[in-house]
Amino acid sequence: MLTLAIRNLARRRLRTLLTISGIAAAVAVLASLLAFGQGYRSGLNRELNAMGIQMMLVPIGCPYDAAARVIKGKALDVSLPDASLGAVRADSAVAVAAPVLMAAIPRPTEGRTDLWVGVDRDILPLKSWWKMKQGSTWFTGPDSVILGAEAAATELRQIGDPLYSPETGKTFRVCAILERSGTTDDSQFFIPIATAQNMFDQHGRLTAVAIRLKDPSLLAGAADRLQQTPGAQIVTMGEMMGTFLNLVETVRTLLLAIGAIAAAIGALTVFNTMLASVVERAAELGMLRAVGASRLDLFWLLGLESSLLAICGAMIGVAAAATLGPWIEKAVRTLVPMAPQGALLRLNPTIVGECAAMGLAVGIAAGLFPAWQASRMKPVEAMRAR
Amino acid sequence: MIGTENTAVAEALVKEYRRGAETVRALDGVSFEIRHGEMLAIVGPSGAGKSTLLHLLGCMDTPTSGQLTINGRSTSGLADRELTRMRRELVGFVFQHFALLPTLTVAENVALPGLFARRRAQKHADELLERVGLSHRRTHRPHELSGGEMQRVAIARALINSPKLLLADEPTGNLDTASGESILSLFRALNSEGLTVVLVTHNEALAKATNRIITLSDGKLVSDLRRSE
Fold first, then answer.
1. What pLDDT score was predicted for residue B229?
2. Closest among A60, A184, A50, A47 to A117, alpha carbons compared
3. What is this structure's pTM?
4. C-alpha angle A52/A53/A57, rounded to 5°?
5. Left (φ > 0), alpha (ψ -120 to 50) or beta: where does A204 sit?
6. Is the pLDDT of residue A93 over 80?
7. What is the ipTM metric for this complex?
8. Which of residues 52 through 111 in chain B touch A, CB cutoff 8 A?
9. Given CB atoms, is A292 within the 8 Å cutoff of chain B?
10. pLDDT at B48
11. CA dihedral sign of residues A348, A350, A354, A356
12. Region B37-62+77-226: CATH code
């Protein structure tokens, strides 16, 4: 029966290939989207957890947008007064308060935007993943710069090299280069906070203050007190995480809807192919009934054919998702806000299994009606269809 | 009337079917019996009911009224499953257009009914191909054969489940004279071995080569002539 089914499918090669392609595309889309959603979620979790920050003081405005921008390395249009840093550091619950000033320098000729970040030594406890290359030192003067691994590679700089910023007309000396961490830090330029304030005409201003508490249980009280800081507001990482997870869930729902559409298209392709096959082969199916095939035999034969289409489609779809994943990720990354560093497309066995099962189920289900149609053909009428 | 010497017995067979709003009576009270080992031809003009009768004899359909007994078993009121079993076990079909599957080899086509009977039939298929003189063509596809060869393959396929009754619908209708004679010889040889053969044909020579001719007209049996008669 299997041989018969395979030969029947081989008879119309182009149609069979197109049908398999339909299922494969559906499975590939679904697998890629699910893998992307999962990678996005775990990447965000990883980055937020790695920060060791419990809350952040940001300028008044949308607190989540502000905190997200600071975390993901994007410049803010508004800023905090320098004095707010003193207020934070004065709070008894605060263990570390690290000022941050961020500014973006567009480099249109190079097709990128550099992010310069003013920091002081208090940032170090909050950047537990920072590992500096051998020979690195902390800022030795106002013109020192610490380069992320990617930034150093892009600028072709080594420790001790000068780094000229044509947009600001300043020359820096590279005092340290960070090891690659898979975070947004890899592409950033870190300079002393005072230098950043001068360089970007933000005297006495900050983008945010990252805060670690002495004890996480002090969070509620500290948040209430710091919320009173003039011109500023507090965002806790719990709130941030919740907001991100809501975003991820929304994205996931959207992805599943797209996947469902892809699956429906795959199902229609199989349905159309199998139904056309039943109509075309009516006389042949009648002959099979005449030589002893039962209704169940024909149902099984047609069901087997649609199953084979589904199996091939699912396998090719999963393979395509794995092969094309990096390209899909590259394309999607540019469209997704706050995309975490590292691989976003995480095609794990669960996703592969789910998507392959979906492809199979859709293919088999779509073949049921045509198979049933074939099985209920009366031999005499089918023979007349010659 | 129903004796063990009969392969088939038809009593007042009526077959009606709908064509749009119209009810067509394709067979109108046909009665006859076919004895074991007979070779007979059913003849008549187009629309006489020959093919309808063949389909009833082949358990591909059931009569609207009357009784048809094949190998001692009535087909009236049988469920599809039972009719399928009777087709599988008792009847072999040979079609005018051969009805070979183009995707299968000659040997696979012959063995095909064995697939539905849930038994390995390849060895028997090889024997039958030998019997019809086509063992050298066993790996060929139908499109590589002549019309006569295709019909011989179809006959071998009809024999694979060792039927009691071989039914052939215009078996020489698509063949040249030489191929037609070769097919007729094969039918006669099979009949001489005891197989009951029923041919539906327009071919006078083929009909005359049998030992009985049943003539139908407008769904009625108008003559039933045995060679001895």
1. 47
2. A184
3. 0.66
4. 170
5. left
6. yes
7. 0.84
8. 55, 58, 60-61, 80-81, 84, 87-88, 93, 95, 97, 99, 101-104, 108
9. yes
10. 86
11. positive
12. 3.40.50.300
